[in-house]
């Protein structure tokens, strides 16, 4: 016994030594950034932007890692600490760049070599015998000449705002749409749509009007040095209405908090973003005619509403249409399949942009549609590959944005921090969120069987974090005084909500007595009372959704995918030939297969990963609906959409329970 | 019976209809490209380059798909038809752009607004009242002023040559290095190194000298209108010595051709690329001093050799060092792990570039090292995720390069096609390849027990395809007359070898009587005579490799990874404490696990995928060596590196046999 103890002590020492060496290890990685950063060669070549991207990504990944390795944070926090620690490296680099580099002015005054009526794309300039090539960047309105970046170094580390919209947001939004294939999302479809559309619009108008009041006050006090129109205030409302509760959702996921609340928050935040983007573009499109350019103009207003509806429905249609394009016989080469899948979503983006719609919104709906239809046509290998690919892209893009946000706080040269405006904005977003959540929840509760309780409403109120989308919308246009002030305020709001509100999620959950650490379907237990549960699900599912589901399951899925019942069974008999033509031959094959398989594999649809020492057995089933019924008693005749729905939902449940590590959370006795 | 037949006929019709609809489907996807391409809005905004990338990728992915869907090509060809069909869309787009767009000149003559001694980074130009912003692109030597692109449209579709080197090549090369974890590669290590280093150098000098003869001849005939130095010829030799037999290897893989031949070709082509890059940079570095700037200068020559050795060993060291950085306790968050893994290889690239080494070469060795060490430290989820991520990146990058090559054939504005030079180049690469393969094989056969037979040598001679690397090296510098001629010739050589030689692989294989469609270890059978097989492997493995393997297995792996035997068992007893400190605690854990596991899982290390209807059970084991012996008879005391080596190699074998679809190939009776 004594010997054993000594051995243990020794091993403890060894383990501890290993920990220290791990820490040294991680420090070495961090130090990799040093020489890179100091090397002037990189800063002047093509690598400059690549290098900046790398600094942001590496930094934002390493900080949570180091914090975890040094036992400062727990697994979950390090894993999904969006914005939490990820903005730290950006902040540090920002401070260094701001105060550590000499400010060199890039130009003094404009040349006046006015030659012809058309500008050249390339300019060769002879500077004391040496020739330099210049490329055209764009036209600048005379008023903005002095807004051109002054500092060389800052210029190099600054990214074109369009990069955020065109390169970084699409993977984030697509991934959000792609992961919207959840039972509880559809169960709360109506409420989510109401929160996303009505709620965001209400919030936008309330914040806009309140901010207009603040601006009036500032003008009265004399704190406003330039113009600030009503439309600017509304635009601010639209920008700041895009909520992004990633941190909250990560913690929810971790603690197995109530799934309905999770679905409400996640669904709202996803659709929310789309609404906010389109809302902001239609506000920008609101340009009253006549001499009084900033008063109310009914024609322009209706034009704006038209723009909103047009862009939204156009983007929606485009995303949905390109999303359903089916890849049929590519199972033989999964790599090509994945590449095409990835490129099709990119096509959606470009196509929508080319047609004047919003690419990001189209990509969102493309993701939702692809998750629903195209996913079922992919080979098993491709399914996991695409899912993982988009996960990584999403992770990297989000880390980059948060890290860049930290940088922007210091390196953006036109910050206008107005205390009155900032305080006003905080109050406005609080009131806007309140006016969005409580009245809507009251109205929704009139129609809902499964009411949204008070503590849920408080939690939703609390979870109104602002993130990547608000930042991207705000940085897009920082040309005027008002937009610069809005950008600075947005940055502060994002940091405040992510750092303070995000950090307070866990105390808030326990304070509001929200169920955590429970299986999503603990009551009633999933076995035995199958019929009772089915009834419950039937009641809870949105009425509209059930109607659509049955149409989708019986007609759309068989046409667009290789799963679902053959059309020959769902269509009336008089259109037999048409049904045969439209049904994929693989549907019949799938049916045969299902009949032969063990029913267990049909039921347990989620991702089951059993680690077996070094070898892992992964049972990665599809989440799509199958034609077979539970078949425990051998009956297979009835293949109604109702049962398929039950199974789908059951499968999704299973997925939720089998994922992640369980954490036992100190529960106070609640209900 | 009759009814059944009718049903079958009906189903055939239905199937056929479905095929047609699939084709329409794919046409619809193709048509997606139309509006995008015509939309002027996209061409003038930030999207331009993104859009071009998309056109290339989408096109290069869709062409093989459409050809497969319309039953024009088989599975294997469509799957890995690198450069084969992938250059088609580029060619088409190139023709359209070349002959379909008006040629608008971007500039006439340089401004002479010579002001100060320092050029500005930003230029504001007042063109008849409007202000335009220009950004500095770089200095141009006076001689090259007229080489600046003339056509706006072509300018927009042309990518910076550095993009190929800094963005597209790294994933391709990294993936090549990352997949070099094969039994037969290590068995032929010596030969591969000889082919890659000696062979490439020989080939480079022979091609260089022959081309210098051709150039002399051209000068004599009067076909040369500008300077063409000896160093340019050598550079051409270096550029064109990088072989890239992807198509051949894809077909080998498909047909299960001889694995030793596969290993020789694959290993050679991977290391080859690294040698060619470094060789070309050291030739560029060869700048003789004194008045006669293009005669032989011993000092400059030795400087070049020094540069070669310095860059190569520096890049090698840098790649290897950053490759072994171990991620230890990140198993809890696989996404962060994958992101860091990806970023670490990127760090290697940037770090090497910053230190003046070659990033691409560093990335290659980083990939090899990461596959060997870091891979073992990853969680199971991360392993498949990183593998798949790099596969997709490699696939997309390679497709892009081949598609862009098609475009460059038409849109590159400074093509110089000299028939004499081209014919000379074809003869030179043929002779260079011959002088590289046959004498080296003769010398190697003196030392090899398992001789490289004549038909293997012929096949290697035949497989000297040129691909992405030659293109990237040639496009890097097209400033002078000689470089432009070299670029045009390289393009033609790449197209010829990929289209003609690549297409002739299958006939060539059967003509040369090379074993196809056989399991790599059919003779002797893998079971029963275990000891005999072990002896055979022992003999066949390179002597140097065995020495290194034992060192690596006993000391490096336990220190750097969580696998391998604990150092306490491999190090002499007097350094017990050091051994305990350096061994990861997880090594002991792994040992425990292995002891408890079924030995079958240890032996069958490869990727086993059993499709089970809709559900797939993937047993994705690590290929790293384990401490446990085969343990069929319970003995576990001896954990020698020899046995681990056997098991590793056996596992790799298993992987080869369990992968891919078997194709029965019309074999003529050979041996």
Automatic annotation (TrEMBL), chains A, B:
Pfam families: Na_H_Exchanger
Listed GO MF terms: potassium:proton antiporter activity; sodium:proton antiporter activity
KW RNA-binding (keyword) present: no
Keywords carried by this UniProt record: Antiport, Cell membrane, Endosome, Ion transport, Membrane, Sodium, Sodium transport, Transmembrane, Transmembrane helix, Transport
Location of this chain's protein in the cell: Cell membrane; Recycling endosome membrane
Keyword Transport applies: yes
Membrane topology: Multi-pass membrane protein
Gene Ontology biological process: regulation of intracellular pH; sodium ion import across plasma membrane
Gene Ontology cellular-component annotations: plasma membrane; recycling endosome membrane
Transmembrane segments: 163-180, 192-212, 233-252, 264-286, 307-327, 339-368, 389-410, 416-435, 456-475, 481-502
Domain Cation/H+ exchanger transmembrane: 148-511
Biased composition, class Polar residues, residue ranges: 615-632
Family: Belongs to the monovalent cation:proton antiporter 1 (CPA1) transporter (TC 2.A.36) family.
Name of the protein: Sodium/hydrogen exchanger
Species in which this protein is naturally found: Bubo bubo
